[in-house]
Model the fold of this input.
Amino acid sequence: MSDIVLWYTTRGAGAVSMILLSAVVILGVLSSLRFQSAGWPRFLTPALHRNLALMTLVFLALHIVTAVVDPFTHLGWLTAVVPFSSYYRTFWLGLGTIAFELLAAVVVTSLLRGLIGQVAWRAIHWLAYASWPVAVIHGFGTGTDALSGWFMVLSIVCVGSVAIAIVYRMLQPPPDPLTSARGEFRSGVSRKLDQ
Amino acid sequence: MTMEGTQAADARILARDRALSLLNNITTYVAFAAVAGVGILGTVSALTIPGVAASSTSSATASATTSTPSDSSSTSSSSSVLAPSSGSVSSSSSSGVAVSGGS
Done:
């Protein structure tokens, strides 16, 4: 395969991965709202979230493999695994490695959710909130197209969509009707224990 | 189970099957769109930052110097077409195009 094709595939797959990862984060944020309708059962949002997360890993793998096997860059496989080991743009590529590993950890622990338990899974799943911004910063820092108009528009749409989803989620009341009752109970118990 | 109960269960099963079909369709469409997106965005990136430097006049002798980002030693090339990756390019021809990119 031509070096040029590899190079363009790396850039295209990177941009698509950013779009998919943003969609995954949005679906993850919205799934906690437990939205459902007649044509959209509640399980559909987390199921689509899971499918797109797995798809994101595939396109991230394409992004990484095409970058590593590109004979011009000589990045090496170590760069894909060990953060900040690259000779080239060490910091920015290191962020990309960290983002990929965080996402891989989130996906793998989600697939092994039954084995590791709900508490550990939830704790690790919060890493997704770290993975996405690190990936976006990686794109801005090391991306050849970072200053291109189309990539700027794409990034603004992705960042804006995720921000809107998070703000919307924060403004919504808790989906669990017993949340406030549980909170009052816990605070009541702690007051009793303090006395 | 009563007749009404059986019908309600059937309705729930049908609704679930429809939802799973919708999930499969959405996933398939997104997968195709993502594959197409790699091609389209790769093409767009190629058009915006092609990573080649070409002299506007074919008769001009383009003497380009390329260097990898970490490599301080430069290699001279008589070709007017550069590799698509990063590096600084300078041309002795006034009509040459200098390209500097990243990863």
